[in-house]
């Protein structure tokens, strides 16, 4: 710990040290909340895991008879129907954006990712797909940590 502290104290400028401390302070404030609602969080996580399992089993069964493209269309259409009430709750002005190409590219990549996943589910065991789904979260955390570290190092 002392060697890390010495490196931090000697190799980072005061501005960088203050920025790191500010991030740590924001994190601590974000994690300081009422800890009385653990049961709701646990139940929501269980519901999420159950929903993903049902989704994967449904996809596995549907792709045996239908093409992956049709299953992706049905899935994305169902998601659209579920999201529409929130989209129009504030009126059409809430849908206005200045970054339409960013949203279009995100939508395109989402469809490509779903096509690849649904095609893979047809041939891979469900246990392997579930494990890959959970490791995805770990990989995203690592990428986020590397990105933040690179940004802090550049400043």
Task: Characterize the structure shown.
By secondary structure, the protein is mostly helical. It has helices at residues 2-11, 14-31, 38-65, 68-87, 100-123, 126-154. It is 83% helix and 0% strand. Helix 3 (38-65) crosses helix 5 (100-123) and helix 4 (68-87) crosses helix 5 (100-123). The longest helix is centred in the last third of the chain and has 29 residues, at 126-154. The protein starts with a helix and ends with a helix.
Helix/strand order, N-terminal first: HHHHHH
Kindly report the oligomeric state of this protein.
Answer: single chain
> Over all CA atoms, what is the radius of gyration?
22 Å
The stretches of 5 or more residues where confidence is low (pLDDT under 50) are none
The pLDDT mean sits at: 79
Straight-line N-to-C gap: 24 Å
Report the sheet with the most strands, covering strand number, pairing sense and barrel closure.
none
The counted number of beta strands is: 0
Helical coverage, percent range: over 70%
């Amino acid at each position: 710990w002392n060697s890390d502290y010495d490196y931090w104290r000697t190799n980072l400028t005061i501005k960088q040290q203050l920025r790191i401390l500010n991030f740590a302070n924001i994190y601590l404030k974000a994690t300081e909340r009422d800890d009385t609602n653990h049961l709701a969080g646990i139940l929501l996580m269980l519901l999420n895991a159950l929903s993903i399992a049902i989704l994967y089993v449904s996809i596995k069964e549907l792709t045996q008879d239908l093409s992956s493209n049709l299953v992706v269309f049905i899935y994305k259409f169902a998601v659209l129907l579920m999201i529409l009430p929130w989209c129009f709750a504030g009126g059409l002005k809430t849908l206005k954006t200045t970054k339409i190409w960013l949203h279009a590219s995100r939508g395109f990549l989402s469809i490509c990712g779903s096509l690849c996943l649904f095609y893979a589910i047809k041939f891979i065991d469900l246990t392997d797909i579930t494990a890959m789904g959970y490791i995805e979260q770990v990989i995203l955390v690592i990428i986020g940590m590397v990105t933040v570290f690179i940004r802090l190092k550049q400043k």
